[in-house]
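Sequence design from tokenized structure. All designs in this work follow the same two-part layout: the structure record, then the generated sequence. An example of the structure record is given first.
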């Protein structure tokens, strides 16, 4: 059997079932790997003692034949999820010391099925960023490196710690959240499968809010089957979340036949951008050929309002961020900068507690919601959002899934785009449209760049049709046969 840290969730479940290892041994292997990879800064809080206790409880349940779907699986949990009694700070100084007295619905679902928590994963502060460079706890380093270049690379964001942990083999899988691409883009940068479910498929209760009409929980894994297993547990209806949708959760893994004959695959003209690297374009063409050769029907489609997605997103998301982050005032929990004047206390606390990117988005959001600008910006953005969603609704009359690149480039070096917020925002150009329309999307590693870095292709699915999207992704996974791995991963080089 291969090293325990090299297993997928499906492989680890099989190993536990065959008694080839115990849940404790699985946890110990990942803890040792995490300790050896602290230079990646993937975790902001390590919960190794808790993990070993959970693993021992898993072994008892397994011995009694009572194991859950994720029994004994060591996971990294993004720091945006509230975990009872454990550091939950959204990687922001303003939430210093916050240990919630409650558990998020998604993590409660995971523990109910036997999952084990290794720690809280680093992330961009309040999920605002595309490179995991805005965290109060410092940058996350991508375990991948360019060939012949030892410059540290970004893992993508905002779920960068989650992605780095899974890519480096220090967690079997991880939870992320996706507001405009924060699962799919880091998955592409780190050679992983990243799944954003339909908005409303997973409960947002207990997940620290950034933009409430966009935030959605999802998994980062090393295989499509693992993504299916994770989603089956994470997804549920939750009466505590007014945006949760009461629809059945199917057996996603059972739908993974990999058969795509007759599948209608849409290729949107608007995703061919000026200046897009040729290697991204070539990989997209390769993906189209894979589906065509397997008997899928390739359909050219138009999503005419795609070009407005990014500017619309950067009005809607900051507006909601401005509203959601108003609650962090130094009064009830977290950081407080004392002052005899209440208003001064608010101002000093928020000025010191929020980082530059969060402050930038709060200011943008407050501006577009202010008197005289609400109609000119926010209301217009909401109308455009409706048109973006309508484009997809019309496309579904012709196609079953949409195939696009995930990101406009491979991972870049830390610091390369730090001084240009617009260049950083453009990382989400291919992922934001599905977020604006509330649609499911998945990134699958499909090839390597000229510098030996992973590149992803994205599939966008119909609302609550994750099963068909996952099956199409499984086909692409088989066709791409992506076996490369980062030299910095636990267990050695590719």
């Amino acid at each position: 059997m291969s090293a325990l840290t090299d297993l997928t969730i499906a492989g680890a479940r099989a190993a536990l079932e065959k008694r080839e290892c115990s849940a404790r041994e699985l946890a110990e292997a990942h803890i040792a790997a995490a300790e050896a990879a602290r230079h990646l800064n993937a975790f902001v809080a390590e919960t190794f003692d808790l993990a070993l206790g959970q693993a021992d409880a898993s072994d008892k349940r397994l011995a009694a034949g009572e194991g859950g779907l994720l029994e004994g699986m060591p996971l990294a949990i993004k720091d945006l999820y509230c975990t009872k009694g454990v550091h939950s700070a959204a990687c922001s100084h303003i939430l210093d010391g916050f240990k919630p007295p409650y558990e998020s619905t998604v993590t409660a679902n995971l523990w109910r099925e036997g999952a084990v928590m290794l720690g809280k994963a680093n992330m961009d502060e309040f999920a605002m960023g595309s490179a995991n460079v805005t965290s109060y706890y410092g940058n996350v380093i991508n375990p991948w490196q360019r060939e012949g270049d030892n410059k540290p690379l970004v893992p993508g964001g905002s779920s960068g710690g989650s992605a780095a942990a899974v890519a480096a083999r220090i967690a079997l899988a991880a939870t992320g959240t996706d507001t405009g691409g924060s699962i799919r883009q880091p998955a592409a940068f780190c050679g992983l499968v990243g799944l954003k479910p339909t908005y409303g498929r997973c409960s947002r209760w207990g997940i620290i809010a950034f933009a409430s009409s966009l935030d959605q929980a999802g998994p980062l894994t090393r295989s499509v089957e693992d993504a299916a297993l994770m989603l089956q547990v994470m997804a549920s209806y939750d009466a505590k979340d007014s945006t949760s949708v009461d629809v059945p959760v199917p057996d996603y893994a059972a739908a993974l036949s990999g058969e795509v004959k007759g599948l209608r695959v849409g290729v949107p003209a608007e995703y061919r951008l000026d200046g897009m690297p040729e290697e991204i374009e070539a990989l997209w063409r390769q993906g189209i050929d894979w589906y065509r050769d397997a008997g899928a029907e390739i359909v050219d489609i138009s999503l005419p309002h795609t070009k407005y997605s990014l500017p619309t997103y950067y009005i809607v998301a900051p507006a909601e961020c401005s509203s959601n982050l108003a609650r962090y005032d130094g009064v009830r929990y977290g950081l407080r900068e004392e002052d005899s004047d209440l208003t001064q206390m608010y101002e000093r606390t928020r000025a010191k507690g929020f980082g530059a990117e969060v402050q930038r988005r709060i200011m943008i959001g407050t501006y577009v919601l202010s008197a005289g600008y609400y109609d000119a910006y926010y209301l217009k953005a909401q109308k455009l959002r409706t048109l973006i969603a309508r484009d997809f609704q019309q496309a579904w009359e012709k196609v079953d899934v949409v195939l696009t690149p995930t990101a406009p480039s491979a991972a870049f070096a830390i610091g390369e785009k730090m001084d240009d917020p617009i260049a950083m925002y453009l990382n989400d150009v291919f992922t934001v449209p599905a977020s604006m329309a509330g649609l499911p999307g998945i990134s699958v590693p499909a090839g390597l760049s000229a510098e030996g870095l992973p590149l992803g292709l994205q599939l966008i699915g119909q609302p609550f049709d994750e099963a068909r999207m996952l099956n199409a992704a499984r086909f692409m996974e088989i066709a791409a046969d992506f076996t490369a791995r980062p030299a910095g991963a636990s267990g050695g080089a590719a």
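Residues 307-384 form one domain. We note this feature because it recurs in several other targets discussed in the main text.
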